[in-house]
């Protein structure tokens, strides 16, 4: 089929198809005698897989997974996606930790003891965030620690620590407009606005739930592509081991 026909089928531009081909995501197109590209159903399968993978994994990871499929490295493609799934699980746990901290602060009036200041090193240790990241987030306007009046060093109170936990959770596995919006909202909020920060953490988890579904759909599509191309077999039919029981000795004395 012509590039324009394949592009219309997936509501993308012909230039996107050319980019996919140049990046090794699509197999090379056949050419007519006059040099025009001709795509087939195999190309359509790859485009469909790309569109299924990108929402949950981003275009870069999706493209790399399909390049691995094209090279025959099916396991490499699957493990690449599993790594991103694991990162999403990590992000979700961090968001849940932030929610727990916010709820505890709402229930405990003494949670924001002004004497409980931490240095940047202590804040990094308490949150699992590097000093470099904390300084970067401060430059980005996401965090506004106070300064020690005696020595001018940064100091972080309990509210700052909770906000750090939330910002850490917003290191989204897939960067999206939704994450950008949440980060901007966090930047505009005071660290002491515990209720609103908790709501943002809950929104973050809802976003991650949608990402989880998108990733599952993407992996399903990738394996479906491999099946259709004859690069994989239906799970359960590969390397099956028959576990037969053998009678040894007396009747009923069975060993594996």
TrEMBL record:
PROSITE patterns, per the entry: HTH_MERR_1, HTH_MERR_2
Keyword DNA-binding among UniProt keywords: yes
One Pfam family named in its UniProt record: MerR
This protein's name: MerR family DNA-binding transcriptional regulator
Gene Ontology MF terms in the entry: DNA binding; DNA-binding transcription factor activity
Lineage, uppermost ranks: Bacteria, Bacillati, Bacillota, Bacilli, Bacillales
Entries under PANTHER family matching the protein: MERR-FAMILY TRANSCRIPTIONAL REGULATOR (PTHR30204:SF69), REDOX-CYCLING DRUG-SENSING TRANSCRIPTIONAL ACTIVATOR SOXR (PTHR30204)
Provenance organism: Paenibacillus campinasensis
InterPro entries according to UniProt: DNA-bd_dom_put_sf (IPR009061), MerR-type_HTH_dom (IPR000551), MerR_fam (IPR047057)
Keywords per UniProt: DNA-binding, Repressor, Transcription, Transcription regulation
Keyword Transcription: yes
Domain HTH merR-type, first and last residues per copy: 1-53, 119-173
């Amino acid at each position: 089929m012509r590039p324009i026909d394949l592009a219309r089928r997936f509501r993308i531009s012909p230039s996107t198809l050319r980019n996919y081909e140049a990046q090794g995501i699509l197999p090379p197109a056949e050419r007519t005698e006059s040099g025009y590209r001709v795509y087939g159903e195999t190309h359509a399968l790859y485009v469909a897989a790309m569109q299924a993978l990108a929402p949950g994994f981003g275009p870069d990871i999706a493209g790399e997974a399909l390049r691995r499929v094209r090279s025959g490295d099916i396991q490499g493609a699957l493990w690449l996606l599993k790594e991103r799934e694991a990162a999403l699980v990590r992000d979700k746990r961090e968001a849940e930790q932030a929610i727990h901290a916010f709820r505890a602060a709402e229930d405990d009036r003494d949670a924001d003891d002004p004497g409980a200041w931490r240095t940047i090193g202590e804040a990094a240790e308490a949150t699992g965030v590097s000093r470099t990241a904390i300084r970067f987030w401060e430059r980005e306007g996401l965090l506004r620690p106070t300064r020690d009046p005696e020595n001018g060093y940064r100091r972080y109170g309990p509210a700052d620590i909770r906000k750090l936990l939330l910002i850490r959770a917003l290191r989204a596995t897939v960067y999206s407009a939704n994450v950008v919006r949440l980060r901007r909202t966090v930047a505009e909020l005071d660290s002491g606005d515990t209720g609103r920060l908790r709501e943002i953490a809950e929104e973050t988890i809802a976003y991650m739930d949608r990402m989880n579904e998108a990733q599952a759909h993407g992996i399903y599509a990738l394996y479906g592509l491999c099946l259709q191309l004859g690069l994989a077999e239906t799970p359960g039919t590969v390397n099956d081991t028959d576990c037969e029981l053998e009678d040894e000795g007396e009747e009923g004395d069975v060993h594996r």
